[in-house]
Every structure is written in structure tokens, then in C-alpha cells.
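Sample 3 of the quickstart, ligand PRP:
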Amino acid sequence: MYRELHHPLIESLVNTLRDTAIDAFIFRHTIKELTKLLLYEALNTDLLTLKKIVTWDGEKEYGYIDEDTVVVVSVLRAALPMHEAVIDTLHRAVSGFLGIKRDEATHKSVLYYDRVGDCRGKKVILVDPMVATGGSLCDAIEVLKAKNARSICTLNIIASPEGITKIQSLYPDVEMIIAKVDEKLNGDMFIIPGLGDAGDRAYNTL
Ligand code: PRP
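Result:
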């Protein structure tokens, strides 16, 4: 299933990213702000784990997100600001990284780096700002399923309808939390209206 967040703040932050006048710092900052809001939504149905703590009024039991069972995986490199935002909130989560690059001529994604441990029993939060054809996310999901992830939830800033359809038809159990579903893909498989190349814009690469 997928959920697009409809909120004026989300809309405004996504539209900030569309503006080519913003610099890399503001681009990364805006991605992080959006990621916090996506994470808030992604954790909406999580059950809290009870833990005994010592409060000013003695020992008590309260509920907490079970961060120890969370693995945050980012698709390099555009997802790095999203990754930072998630682990700033879930300090105890384990991190994993997948290098996946879309071939510019064929538009097919290529996995070139895998630094994700075994995910058995873990809830994986998979972050990538853009879902165009969906190929990169599919590759990432395949890797995570092979590593026995208990559940997979993706956080995405923008996604094309084509990419969402592909992922949902292949992996109906994967939950996608998306800030904005854009209009379409163009002939070069770029998202329209889109943001441009998020990796380049986040890090001023040429
Ligand atoms: C971008 C983006 C996604 C992918 C989406 O990464 O961050 O990972 O493209 O395209 P797809 O849905 O058609 O696979 P890119 O390949 O540009 O790598 P980069 O982050 O290293 O620039």
C-alpha cells in the first residue's frame, strides 16, 4: 500500500525543493524536514514497547518505539540527508547502505554496493527521495527481502505514478509513505515536474 501525505506544510516544503534558486544547504535541510514528517506518518501504527524507568516520582513503566528492531537503509547517494534525519530521531536504529545507480542510457538500475546486515526480525525503513521508474527501489527491496526483513516501509519525497504501480504490483506488502505523487515520467524517465537530480542538488556535484 502507499500513502501520499496531503498537508499544506508538506506541499510547501516539496515546492521549496522544486526551486532551483535554493542552495545545497537549504536543499538538504528541506529534505530532512520532510523526512521527519514522513517518519512521523510511518511510525503511526507502531505498537509501543513497555519499559521500566526511574522517574522523579519513582520507578514507572512507559511505552517506547522499539528502536532496537529498526534498520534504516538508504539508497546512495541522494538519500543521505534522509538517512541523517531518521537516525537523528531513532538513535538506536541500525544503519545500512545500498549503492544503486541508474544507467543514464538504459535507465536500468545497477546495484554496486551492499552494506546491509541480516534483517531477520527487523522493521526496515528504506529511504530514497525519488521513485522514477521504480527500478532502484525494486532492487533495494529484493536485497532486503533476501536478508529476511520482517517488514519494509519506504520513505520517499516524490514518486511517479508509474514507479508506484510497479512497486505495489511486485511487492504489495511494502508500505510506501510519499510526500508528493508527481504527474508522470518523461521520455528520459525523469519525474515531471520533479526536483532535478536530488543527489547533485544535495551535494553540488557536477
Ligand atoms: C536517483 C534516485 C533514485 C533513482 C530513482 O538516483 O535517488 O535512487 O534515481 O530512479 P528509478 O526509480 O528510475 O530507479 P541516481 O540513480 O540518480 O543515483 P545518485 O543518487 O547516485 O545520483
